[in-house]
Amino acid sequence: MKNQITGILPSSIGNLKNLKSLVVLNNHINRTIPRGIRELSQLIYLDLSSNFFEGVVSESHFANLAKLEILDLSSTSKKSLILQVSSAWIPAFTNLEILDLRHLACTITAAPKAFPSSHITWDLNAEIQTMREEMPQSAEEAGDDHM
């Protein structure tokens, strides 16, 4: 799906409270991923892959995304995207099945010790530039604690 959409993802995206799927892959969307995305509490599928995002993505971006099952940030930047989460962070999404960070040129400040599901499909074929803590190799290493 290449629509060649250009520009930014507006923070007002958070006003779409009942949105279940946000798929804007393979476009020319740039700048930061807006914090307003955290207001999409009904979101199940979030695919921002193959765009040109930069800046910081933090725990607060995902704070209310409890229903999220698929998160795809793969190949999102040729610039600098910082995934900033603490190792103590326990994500709100209890149903996450797919976490795709392939070819993500970014800095990860910490790897969460516990993810909500032991059956997450990890795809971390990463071009990660800096990691201050070790990323778990599998969901089992991350912990199989459920929230």
Describe the structure.
By secondary structure, the protein is mostly beta strands. The chain has a single domain (6-142), classed as Ribonuclease Inhibitor (Leucine-rich repeat, LRR (right-handed beta-alpha superhelix), Alpha-Beta Horseshoe). The protein is 3% helix and 25% strand. It contains one helix and twelve strands, in the order ββββββββββββα. The protein has one helix at 139-142, and strands at 6-8, 21-23, 28-31, 45-47, 52-53, 55-58, 70-72, 81-84, 98-100, 106-108, 121-123, 130-131. It has a five-stranded parallel beta sheet, with no helix packed on it. Strands 6-8-10-12 form a four-stranded parallel beta sheet, with no helix packed on it. The protein has a three-stranded parallel beta sheet with strand order 1-3-5, with no helix packed on it. The radius of gyration is 14 Å and the shape is globular. It starts with 5 loop residues before the first strand and ends in a 5-residue tail after the last helix. The model is unreliable at 125-147 (pLDDT under 50).
Task: Summarize, please.
The protein has 147 residues and is mainly beta. It is 3% helix and 25% strand. Mean pLDDT is 76; it is low at 125-147.
Order of helices and strands: EEEEEEEEEEEEH
Tally of helical segments:
1
The CATH topology label is Leucine-rich repeat, LRR (right-handed beta-alpha superhelix)
- Regarding CATH, which class? Alpha Beta
Averaged pLDDT, please? 76
Low-confidence stretches: 125-147
Strand arrangement across the biggest beta sheet: 2-4-7-9-11
CATH architecture: Alpha-Beta Horseshoe
Helix vs. strand class: mainly beta
Count of extended strands: 12
Shape: globular
CATH superfamily: Ribonuclease Inhibitor
N-C termini distance: 34 Å
Residue share in β-strands: 25-35%
